[in-house]
């Protein structure tokens, strides 16, 4: 069995987040979304980020993608600063975001048009076949199921062969059966391509099933609370989810999320203790 990529001290850091802090300007005043968040993702590693609702997971991912600027801190890819959308970073959003007036083929070709690059149709055809969408190129989004639309979104993100794939709760709107299918598919694609993946999810079981490491964020403003190493051998089957080891690990991560206070709560508790 392929045991996947196990993080070691010698592993090469592909993606680094250093002291990421983000404030949003709102009508009611500044909103502190991220607070001094740091993480290293090794090359070829599959990582998941979990945390309570509103903790800044999406803000973190969009900042890594270069779609949001940070108030302070840095994002580095291969040691170079990410200051905007990067050709080596692909992203799959919560919604497939397929343009309804374009068929599947033309939706997937959109990144090439934006970048004014020649379409790599051979690579796209391989990806479509890999995700079970061969022959659907002329179909429009309204003719595709939710799972098929997300498969198309994955193909679009991988079409220009990025070295890093960011996924922002891509399967949250799918039914449980389709979600399981998609998780198996994503792991298979990762085993084939060894892309560096950062995957945001609310589903802790999903995070444990997919990842090499799970990064737990605190309540807003989001900080790194704890990192869990996931050592189950690959490839993984859905039978793994019924084991005691997964059950106990999922509950341990849940407890960490539930018992990790926000920065504001921790500061207030400290102030009361000092008083």
Description:
This protein has 275 residues and is an alpha/beta fold. The protein has two domains: 13-88 and 162-274, P-loop containing nucleotide triphosphate hydrolases (Rossmann fold); 97-161, no CATH class. 35% of the residues lie in helices and 24% in strands. The chain has eight helices and ten strands. It has helices at 57-64, 104-115, 121-130, 146-158, 176-193, 204-210, 244-259, 263-274; strands spanning 13-26, 29-42, 46-50, 72-77, 80-81, 89-92, 164-168, 196-200, 213-217, 224-229. Strands 6-7-8-3-9-10 form a six-stranded mixed beta sheet, sandwiched between helices. Strand 9 (213-217) and strand 10 (224-229) form a beta hairpin. Helix 2 packs parallel to helix 4 (146-158) and helix 6 packs across helix 7. The longest helix is centred in the C-terminal third of the chain and has 18 residues, at 176-193. Mean pLDDT is 90; it is low at 1-9 and 263-275.
């Amino acid at each position: 069995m392929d045991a996947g990529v196990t993080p070691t001290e010698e592993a090469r850091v592909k993606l680094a987040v250093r002291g990421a802090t983000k404030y949003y300007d709102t009508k009611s005043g500044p909103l502190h979304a991220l607070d001094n968040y740091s993480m290293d993702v090794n090359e070829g590693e599959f990582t998941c980020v979990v945390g309570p609702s509103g903790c800044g997971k999406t803000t973190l991912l969009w900042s890594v993608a270069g779609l949001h600027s940070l108030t302070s801190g840095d994002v580095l890819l291969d040691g170079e600063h990410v200051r905007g959308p990067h050709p080596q970073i692909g992203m799959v959003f919560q919604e497939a975001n397929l343009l309804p007036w374009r068929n599947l083929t033309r939706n997937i070709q959109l990144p090439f048009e934006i970048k004014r690059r020649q379409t790599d149709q051979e690579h796209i055809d391989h990806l479509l076949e890999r995700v079970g969408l061969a022959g659907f190129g002329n179909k429009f989004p309204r003719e595709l199921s939710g799972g098929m639309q997300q498969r198309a979104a994955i193909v679009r993100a991988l079409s220009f062969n990025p070295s890093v794939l960011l996924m922002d709760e891509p399967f949250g709107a799918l039914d449980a059966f389709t979600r399981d299918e998609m998780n198996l598919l994503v792991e298979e694609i990762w085993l084939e391509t060894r892309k560096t993946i950062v995957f945001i999810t609310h589903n802790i079981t999903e995070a444990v099933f997919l990842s090499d490491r799970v990064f737990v964020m605190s309540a807003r403003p989001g900080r790194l609370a704890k990192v869990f190493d996931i050592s189950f051998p690959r490839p993984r089957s859905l039978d793994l989810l019924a084991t005691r080891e997964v059950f106990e690990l999922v509950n341990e991560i849940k407890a960490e999320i539930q018992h990790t206070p926000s920065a504001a709560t921790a500061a207030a508790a400290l102030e009361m203790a000092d008083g």
